[in-house]
Amino acid sequence: MAKVFNDPIHGHIELHPLLVKIIDTPQFQRLRNIKQLGGVYFVYPGASHNRFEHSIGVAHLAGELAKALKVKQLEQIKPLEELKELKELKKLKKLKPEYLEQLKKLQNLTPQDLKELQELMPEDLDKLKKLQNSKLEDFEKLKAEELEDLEKLVELENLDFTKLEKLKKLQNSKSEGLEELNPEDKKMLQRFKPKDVEKFEKLERLDELKKSLISDQDVLCVQIAGLCHDLGHGPFSHFFDGMFMDAIKRDKKGKADKEVTDNEKWTHEKASIEMFKHLLDQNGLKEVMKKYGLKVDEDGTDLVFIEEMIKKPQDEKPQNDAAQDNEHQNNDASKKWPYKGREEKKSFLYEIVSNKNTGIDVDKFDYFARDCHHLGIPNSFDHQRFVMFARVCDVEEDRKKTKHICSRDKESANLYDIFQQRLSIHRRACQHKIKMAVEIMLKDALILVDDHPDFKIKSSKGEMLNISQANGDMEAYTKLTDHVFERILHYQEGRKEPSSEEERKKEQDLEQAREILQRVEEERKKEQDLEQAREILKRVMERDLYRCVGQAKKKSGEEIKERLKNLVNDIQEDGKDRDEVNNVTLTYNMGNEKSITKEYSYDKENSKTPEDKKKEKKEALEKIKEDLEGKLSECSPDDKFEVIDVTLDYGMENDDPLIKAYFYRKDNPDKGEPIPKSDVFSVLPDWFSDEMLRVYWKNPKELTDEQIKTKEEEFKKVFNDWCKENGYKDLNKEVPSAGRATSGNE
Fold first, then answer.
1. Looking at residue 293, what is its pLDDT?
2. What is d(CA 651, CA 408) in angstroms, rounded to the nearest whole number?
3. Keyword Coiled coil: yes or no (predicted)?
4. How far apart are CA 492 and CA 487, in angstroms?
5. What distance lies between CA 463 and its chain's CA centroid?
6. How far apart are CA 602 and CA 583, in angstroms?
7. Which distant-in-sequence residues (6+ apart) come within 8 Å of 484 by Cβ?
8. What distance lies between CA 630 and its chain's CA centroid?
9. Residue 322's CB: how many other CB atoms inside 10 A?
10. Which residue from 48, 50, 32 is spatially nearest to 40, judged by alpha carbons?
11. Would you call 428 exposed, middle or buried from its count of C-beta atoms within 10 A (0-12, 13-18, 19+)?
């Protein structure tokens, strides 16, 4: 049976029995022990919430939005169905008023009634038999102008396609030149108004609209996807698949083994799908899903649908190799519907849990409300208002009609609050200077014990896996949570170390003795790494953190050049179907400073994909980090440093997140259209992202405050010199360093 949860954010929420079954499994309960905001809890004492409650909240909101959209779909279809029935009555042109009373008794027709109706066509008589008496009464009450509208609909239905298209073209033409029309076209244009044609086309699409109706199975699948979308998170949430796994990849770079390859492709969304499958198999829930009408067999569309909502499938590449050189074939391939769980007519369902087009989805709605509640900061976005105005609309996209979730045009400015709120949470919490110091230390500790035998996790095959390998086996991964922090911190000492003398007594062979001695040395090394990891975590608990000795961002001129280049990339991307080379010159006026003018060209033969550009940017950033860390290490070879990049954006890098959003007008609620940024709000940003570099010094524990201060000043000077040489603005004067809890460190 359904279960009611008392949630601090959404109040009392009731979840479907199937969702309760999923919640009551070890794989889902694991989320109770994974902090939603990772290391933020070490900065904000209220940020103690976990992935468990967030997932329940997303499931609830996913159901609320899906049900609200369904109600509006039914409201949209109901008047069309009534109009269609009245139109069918009107089509019976031979219908005489004196027959109406008899028609109300059609279910009990006498031979005399049939005789009086013999002039009607048989198919018309069948339609009349199906009509309800209430519809006949409604027909009797119609006013003259309503009857006239019905007559027009019948006439439009009898027009062939060519004439109908010609009529639409004439209606969209300017008034001049219409006097030259032939009499038939003039008569047609005078007879039918644009609203008549629009009403007719809506009526013609009634069956299509019915196919796009949200079903009960759709709602249940959307809720399951919302519930399970974060099953794949590791310890401290994004820390694990971000900072920790990135460090593991760097450490093992160049090694040709399956573990490294798998880690390169791994994301927490992929792990969520694998954990979801594991959860169903281990707890026998596929049969329960079938009980509630879901298709979950080998080719079960509902199971595929749930997985696709958690992670969008990779776009399929063209099967024909020759298509690689054919621009049109490539374009067709890229526009191919990538999903298998639902047809394209229900494309909007993929925008509820994780919206890849605009980023407006219920995942954000919950974490905005929940994170702000626990962080103690205001939430400027009202998700309930969004649900109230959201509806499914037709959108003209890529020369075809698609369906999207759209909001009212008057809500466009309010939707920017979503992304401003995201920026605020990231700036004040997720990218907090102290939080990042904590996570760097946690990363260092986990790497030190990654392959320690006492922290290995048993897999489904009985193998003992490293911490970084557990994500490849869901049985092992189920056991990996934030508890690893406490396990390292409070690791029980007193284990008896192998003794070389004891081992030599057991083994007579000299070669075996050497191998044993080597293992002893390896064990000692692992114990030293463990002790070092424990010391790092002790420092975290004592608030003796790594020091932030520098923050910098590109100087305005360099930043403008970079942004101009990004803008040109966007312009060139829009014009990529052209055959010629695009040459673009842009000038940016910087007020009192000298204007910046840059010329760029686009060579179609050597154009780069978005993935190539991301990879290029990442590699350039890695070189900058290596260069900066190298400069600091030259200054003090015994010290260690880590440079991280901090990005603050609206969720779509430097793109306007609402560029792919659509809105409907009050007078046309079924059609979605984009709204230019200039029509929304005059003070919206020109750029939607900001980046900076941060340098952390892994200061030794034994240093005094005076020694730390002296070294910090030295490192800050080196950092300042590097910034001048590389076009960066040093922000050190504005930002206090992280470290021991002193005034100003928060």
1. 92
2. 22
3. yes
4. 9
5. 34
6. 6
7. 235, 446, 455, 467
8. 37
9. 8
10. 48
11. middle
| pLDDT tens by residue, 216-247 | 999 999 999 999 999 999 999 999 999 999 99
Best CA proximity match to 361, nearest among 305, 404, 398? 404
Q: Return all residues near 644 (Cβ < 8 A) that are at least 6 apart.
A: 436, 440, 693, 694, 696
State the residue for tokens 């005034």.
743
> Can you read off the two tokens belonging to residue 425?
């949470």
Question: What is the predicted pLDDT for the residue at 393?
Answer: 93
End-to-end CA distance of the chain: 47
State the pLDDT at residue 504. 47
Give me the torsion for CA of 235, 228, 48, 530, rounded to 10°.
-10
- The secondary structure of the chain in percent helix, strand, coil, rounded to multiples of 5, reads 60, 10, 30
The predicted pLDDT at position 676 comes to 76
From CA 154, how far away is CA 88, in angstroms rounded?
A: 8
At 736 the pLDDT is 45
Coil, helix or strand at residue 407: strand
**Residue 107, Cβ density class (10 Å: 0-12 exposed, 13-18 middle, ≥19 buried):** exposed
CB 217 within 8 A of CB 261: no
* Residue 4 lies inside a defined structural domain of this protein: no
pLDDT digits over 627-655, tens only? Answer: 888 888 888 888 999 998 888 776 656 66
Alpha helices in 92-182 (DSSP H): 100-103, 111-116, 122-130, 133-141, 144-158, 161-172
Contact in structure between 467 and 457 (CB atoms under 8 Å): yes
Q: Is residue 440 part of a domain?
A: no
- Provide the Cα torsion 419, 423, 424, 429; round to 10°: 130
Where do the DSSP E strands lie in 340-495? Answer: 391-397, 400-408, 457-458, 464-465
> Which pLDDT score is estimated for 334?
47
Virtual torsion, Cα 735, 740, 743, 745, nearest 10 deg: 30
How far is C-alpha 598 from the geometric centre of its chain's CA atoms? 34
Catalogue the E-assigned strands of 439-511.
Answer: 457-458, 464-465
Residue 588 lies in a domain: yes
What strands, in cross-sheet order, belong to the sheet with 547-554?
641-649, 689-697, 547-554, 728-730
- Residue carrying the six token digits 């199971």: 303
What does DSSP assign to residue 427?
I
692 part of a folded domain: yes
| All residues at 6 or more sequence positions from 685 whose CB lies less than 8 Å from its CB, including other chains | none
Question: Residue 744's pLDDT is what?
Answer: 35
How many Å apart are CA 157 and CA 147, to the nearest integer?
Answer: 15
Neighbours of 55 (CB within 10 A): 24
The rounded distance, in Å, linking the Cα atoms of 641 and 289 is: 52
**HSE of 701, CA atoms in CB hemisphere, 13 A:** 13
Domain, as residue range, for 613: 547-653+688-734
Place of tokens 């329940």: 56
Dist. CA 601–CA 470, nearest whole Å:
47
CB of 714 closer than 8 Å to CB of 636: yes
How far apart (Å, rounded) are the C-alpha atoms in residues 472 and 681? 47
Q: Is 116 helix (H, G, I), strand (E, B) or coil?
A: helix
Which residue out of 49, 54, 268, 452 is catalytically annotated?
Answer: 268
Cα distance between residue 638 and residue 646, in whole Å = 26
Number of domains in the chain: 1
Return the pLDDT at 209: 76
Do the strands 464-465 and 689-697 form a parallel or antiparallel pair, or are they unpaired?
Answer: unpaired
Catalytic residue status for 268: yes
